Amino acid sequence: MIFKCLTAIAAITMATVTPSALAADCRTSGCGDASCAPCAGAPSSCQSCNTGCQVCGGQGFCCDGLVGEGIDVDSLTPEAQSKQLLESLQARLIFELPEDADIYLADQKMMTAGAKRTFVVPVNDATKVYQYRFKVDVVRGGQKYFKNVTLDTLRAGAILKVTVEAPPAVEGEPATIVVAVEPVAPGGATSQGESADDAGVPDVAGE
Fold this sequence. Notes:
Strand 1 and strand 2 (54-55) form a beta hairpin. This protein has 2 domains: 2-55, no CATH class; 73-206, no CATH class. The protein has helices spanning 2-16, 19-28, 78-87, and strands at residues 47-48, 54-55, 90-96, 102-105, 108-109, 116-122, 130-140, 143-154, 159-165, 178-185, 197-198, 205-206. With 207 residues, the chain is of the alpha+beta class. The chain contains 3 helices and 12 strands.
């Protein structure tokens, strides 16, 4: 009778350490979590691995606590991002600027903070190049200064990097704001002989 019970327990244990069961449990519970079977039944049988997770029962499976397939790194290239923007009739502006600077897109103050700020701008036609205006302002030497900039190269699929330099200024001395625009991806081609139009797109989405 005792032998039969031990055999039944062994069979149950073997069933819980199959690779499929382990993989499923590790995806649904946290990394190294007490509920991550089969470690829950025998925590002493688990050992740490180089990802900080747990290898259970010598099966060689490690749960990372993350759900889903992951991100294809090829989808992060400028070319891939530009293609997605083109298909969705959008352009992206990437600002690198002093953290205390303010950005106004289409006369709207953006509330995003930081030294790097990204915004998505909708466009109306993938075959056209648009003009798009923005403003940057800073406080230097106790006085607010601003600079208006007009982009002539905004189009669907474009990724433009905008670098703003506004060094400290002594009170009473004039401040400087220098803006440079660099195309990371030019975006969709325009029709031959097409001139830049006013974008007229006040909606902006921050990222």
